[in-house]
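TL;DR need structure tokens for one chain.
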Amino acid sequence: MPRGGRRADLTARVGSVVLPNPIMTASGTAGYGVELGGYFDPAALGAVVPKSLSPEAWAGNPAPRVHEAGSGMLNSVGLQNPGIEHWLANDLHALAGCGARVVVSIWAFHADGYRAAASKVAAAVAGGGSASALVAVEANISCPNIEDRRQMFAHSTAATAAAVGAARAGLDGALPLWAKLSPNVTDLPVIAGAALDAGADGLVLTNTLMGLAIDPATGTPVLGAGGGGLSGPPLHPVAVRAVYECRNAFPSTAIVGVGGVTRGADAAEFLAAGADAVQVGTASFADPAACVRVLAELRQWCRRHGIDNLAELVGRAQRANAAGQQHS
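>> reply
TL;DR here they are.
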């Protein structure tokens, strides 16, 4: 039990954003708004992150789009969405109406698209109303840059800086900006540094690993667009390392961990590695109430391990490492 038998205070501080707890949905896994509202109250989470939204509507990739890959999932949805203006006008109000806090995720095929999407969010914030539910913007830069032979923005320091800088300019200080990065690089802290230098207030670590499934009977890819992104439990150790290394490199930066969280203990591991908050994604496909279950399990984990305040858990790995060095 926590000291004195009190319930652990799970208030999460992600940079300037204060949330009642550290658990969020992950973009692309919880629809555009309250689709999961039949399974839990969205306001019970720290924040809801809808599917990533582009400046204009985008149809996404051909079917099939998802494939079971062992304990994980390979997906190639292709960022289908109705466009940021449509979502702001037609979907945000449902989340705001139930009292949810919302992190809006944006993406684009070129840097100017990030500026355009972010400026639309900034205009909505200035107008008030449902936009008061917005607490941050997540720039999903793990998507193809058509100006660089469709290479991902997050695979290049220059492209990362261009996308984040454009989003920062479009947002014009209306909300904190978090950059969602890719694990498919050799030195993630270098890419993260470029994002922070360009104006990101925090990091979301990470997106999916690139993968491919082939039907051996035909020799053709299982997914309609060919390759896809691997998510779920196989991604978890990769994402934990990403969080740990970036927390070591940037001690005061806001970090959100995402990848393969299926249990409260997985969330606790991310927090100990240095994350300030955690997103739950693929687990929601099998269990639509996964987010609130993970939150409940995290509370139980904290109770069993004597955690009174979330700050006692966040960055525990860095503190343990520092203590070990002092005694070596």
